## 1
Amino acid sequence: MAKKSSPAATIFLISIFFILYAPIFYLVFYSFNSGGSMSGFEGFTLDWYRELLQDTRLLIIVLNTLVIALLSAFIATVIGMFGAIGIHSLKRSKHAILGLNNVLIVSPDVIIGASFLILFTIAGVRLGFYSVLLSHIAFSVPIVVLMVLPKLMEMNPSLIDAARDLGASRWDVLTKVIFPYITPGIFAGFFMALTYSLDDFAVTFFVTGNGFSTLSVEIYSLARQGISLNINALSALLFLFTIALVIVYYFITQRAGGKLGGFRR
């Protein structure tokens, strides 16, 4: 029988959500303000969104951001997936390697960004698209590993043994037993990597060169020039895009979970 949550716990949870979401809704609300400032709402308008969509430079930056996020998330997912399988198969030094994997996650973004900047400078890599892409792949791989590894740990080893006893090759075991089982973790890793790439600022700020920018760096630059409701409109669209990602991720994981349930039976 499920326990009912106490009124105090409910109030606390509502307060936390209010603190987290109130600034976002405040920002979105004033993106429709015809007054041009956030000091008082004068009337409803879509002018800031029209102006935003007519800004060719900003649209190119949005495209850059999406390309970087999708490419880095995909490549990091592939690397992290095989990395998690490799770590799980180790007999020795598993915890040591997993600890090294976690160092990138807990390390400050400023340190990671500065390290990449020094590395690219020494290697002679020009700062721009490829430096940002490589950096995003690097800090996304450990996230994917942490998303996939728990699914591997909860998988019953007898599934692999049974497949081998039936004559399955290593490739068959990998593609027909392991991959279907860890599919929810793979999707979780991909969407986490995608989200981290979209909103990363500190690392991207260090490795972005002249002539190339992402949304996080561009929003920071616009905000330094003064309050503009273009920023509100852009942030509102990003918020809606994030919600869409969460919904898509939910339905994909639900479908993957259903297939996995059938596989288990």
Note: Residues 181 and 261 are 9 Å apart (CA to CA).
## 2
Amino acid sequence: MKKTLKYTLIFFIALGAVLSTALATFKSSVSVPWRQLVGGIKTTEKEVTGRLTAADGYSVQLFAGDVPGARWLTVTRNGDIIVSQPKHGKVSLLLQDKDGDGRSDGQKTLIDNLQRPHGLLLHDGWLYIAESDAVGRVPFDHSDGRLAGRYQRIIENLEDNGHWTKTIDMSPDGWLFLSSGSSCNVCIEKDPRRATIMRMKLNGDNFEIYATGLRNSVGFDWSPKDGGLYATDNGRDWLGDNLPPDELNLIRKDQFYGWPYAYGDRVPDPDLGVDASPEIQQKIADSIPPVYEFRAHNAPLGIKFLRSVEQPKDYRHAALVALHGSWNRSVKDGYKVVSLHWSDDGKIQQRDFLWGFLSNDRQTVYGRPVAIAEDKLGNIYISDDYAGAVYRVSQGAPRQAVLTTQQPQLQKTTTANALSIDAEVVQLGAQLYRSNDCAHCHQAQFPLRNLSAKYTAQTLADYFDAPTPPMPNYNFTAVQKKALAHYLLSRESSL
């Protein structure tokens, strides 16, 4: 018996040594830090403000620091942030910053037990979720950030081996667009839906392939300036540190963008494009080259055109792109967010927008940005699946407190302080008007005229308890209702 125990102990000691050696060999064979493969690191506000630097005029804060595997983002009408966490099979809600400290006021799981949920879209009372093998939707209540019905899949049986992420968004003309990456590094796909961007109606009908030859277009968005659909694309691996370039493509219907036969500006791929048949050579010649090339292996993922009127003129209609960072370069590269600026002649200039995710010696990774979202006030949210964080980039210095930290007292006490109190109330009302995008309807469809002839401040505030459709009931507090009423009446008097 003692001999058996002795040999058993020796066996497990030897097995442990073998496994330890194998693990060390594997860790040294990959250029991405080992801690990323087991879930990344956790960051703090001090580390964020100490390491990360934003472009001039902006500052960065840690909006939420406990969101493991944070990927895609979307902003609710109420100002909350919805984030997908594919590795955990769930989608979470980060509560808006009501106390004005720059941080989310809390978080909760919206839905779980999904198949690697990635892309997110809010539209017309629905939350659309792109899982790795399907697209589903669920009714969503913006007023209190909860699901208001049953989750239902509208597209199923999508392949999810290889590049498994699916990203979804809606075009200006009301189609759902869906990207699907390739199953491999470079190969001929059996499933024609791989390495494409597809589209469908809002209920999943009329599903069709829109553009092909896109190896892994994780992010896409429509330019508010020219209306074009721009998509990032990750080039193939194992051609060295500097080939091929990653791409930004202007996507057009029924066009072919090169992969797997070519990369960049119609450069034949050494595996499938060189010495290819005349048919393939012609396919390469007819392919659409990128409108912009990123450095090789920078891994551009999310792209978002800035639309808020609150952005500085130089950034309004610019595109932010999250460079996730290289994983197989001898020297790491990427790991930052850049802004793309279009000149009048169509040329694109790249600038650094948020950096510090990579150490100066390019050895240590602190974060890997993924997706970008913008709220109505111009706050920019950036997810980081390595640090499990969501950052908020805002204009000016980091926010410590805002007006809503202490609600203004509407009761006037003296004539001396009446004007200052009214000014604060009007300012709060202006914030509510902007954050709920009221101008979207009231500038053109339902212009606000002659309010003072119809309402006092009190009766206008009371109106918000039961507004006339199509205006939704935003469930404002008493202070918010009176503040918005004061703002609308003062705004009318200044016109």
Note: Confidence is low (pLDDT under 50) at residues 17-39, 401-421.
## 3
Amino acid sequence: MDSNIAIFADRFYHMQLLIFLLAYPFIWLVSKLPFRLLYMLSDLVFVLLYHIVGYRKKVVYSNLKLVFPDKPDSELKQIQKKFYAHLCDMFLEMIKTMSLSNAEVKKRYAVQNIELIKRIEKERSILVVCSHYANWEWNVSINNYVNSKGYAVYQPIANKYFDDFVRKVRARFNTTLITQKQTVKTVVKDKRDGVIGVFGMVSDQSPMVSKAQYWSDFMGIKVPIFNGAETMARKLDLAVVFLKVSKVKRGYYKAEFIAIAENGAATEENYITDTYLRLAEQQIKEEPAYYLWTHRRWKHRNKQPAHYAKVS
């Protein structure tokens, strides 16, 4: 039995390597394209994804209709189409990251109000929370502006070769990737060693109903809420800052830091999570097309257990 498992594992990893070797030349080539050609390619991918394949169009429209019930169908269709165009741009921009210089990133991803981070990091570590909005891959570039050690909390890729590749790409921006399970241990170790860290975390994921510790409204729909950032901030006395990203034009973004809590341990229960939700909602409502609507964020609505009935 053990030998069969070993043989299967060996073949599995060889298959992972083969997939990586086949895909890497295309990824490398795309990353070397000048932006003008990159966006020409994005336009072609849009035609394929939106008009021919129709990738998750029903999911996207259903999500838009759910959270914007008063918008006419024509407007929802416009938002949907604009979203897919942005999604294609963002996907290729993520590939472009592997060959993008720090100078080019700074030109295309402008960071405002960095003084807030630099002031807080003199005293304590910071959780920088954001949502799946605009180009969250380029959010890692904020570590070029801070003095503290930069971390990005991420979901490991099943293919270990692609996972190693992503780690190396993000390391170019002074970012260390850690998993959600590693985050608390990393914060505790840094505090013990006297190290200040800035931890980037996308916080609008949809937790499993069985593991949800908090339910609240997000875009007017009651759903289970991921509150890991608040739990860590209150327990480990971390600051929490929201990263608001806006798309200025194609290929250009600006990021703004908004303080949620400079002393997490002193906040009331659910304050950090609720404030984050309101900021994320405001960001989405300002320009809906740049949110990740293919994500089934509201799939657990109407599944709230009875003992959560009074949770706001």
Note: Residues 108-308 form one domain.
